[in-house]
Structure prediction request, 214 residues.
Amino acid sequence: MSANKENNLVQAYIELNKYCQSGDYDRALKATGKVLQIAPNEQKAFHCKIVCLIQLHNFKEALAVLSNPRNAALASELHFEKAYTQYRLNCPKEALQTVDNAPELTPALKELRAQILYRLEQYQDCYNLYRDIVKNTTDDYEDERKTNMSAVVANLAALNPSSDLPQFD
Amino acid sequence: MPPSMDAIPCKPLFFDLACNFVEFPNLDDKTGAADSKKQGAGLTG
Prediction:
């Protein structure tokens, strides 16, 4: 890469970084275009582009970009982002497949997997996974996660009122 | 005549917590911020 091109690339990334940090997803999306015009194989800019599309709720385009065979190399590590767009587009079966094809079940994929299982009405598996997540996670969303768990239990109870239901403290 | 009212279970609240994991990657190595940090460390020992 020529020194000039390299300098342009750094400048484009600096601009992108600025909009990422301010949460200006429209401008950040445009900035990813600039980076990818200079260097089409920039994985991080591609990742940012997908995050922008998701934050702008343009899930359809995010999934189309991720699934385009021309972007196969750039998209190869974005398992969570792909599964999340499929989940939001109401394709929980495909989303689950994407999650389970990932080489490692990261905390993000675990959280998403639980939500997918809920959508698929696999409440017992969903409950077991939430128990595991709650035990191993400390973050700002513990109340919301407990709410989700009680939704799972409510569904278990509705399906089978006579079953032994988990108790909450 | 409308049919009589029946109680039905309400739809439980369910949050999308996975959306919090949709985050930008760290771009420090691309913007030169990582290099200047390294230099800074060098200067201060």
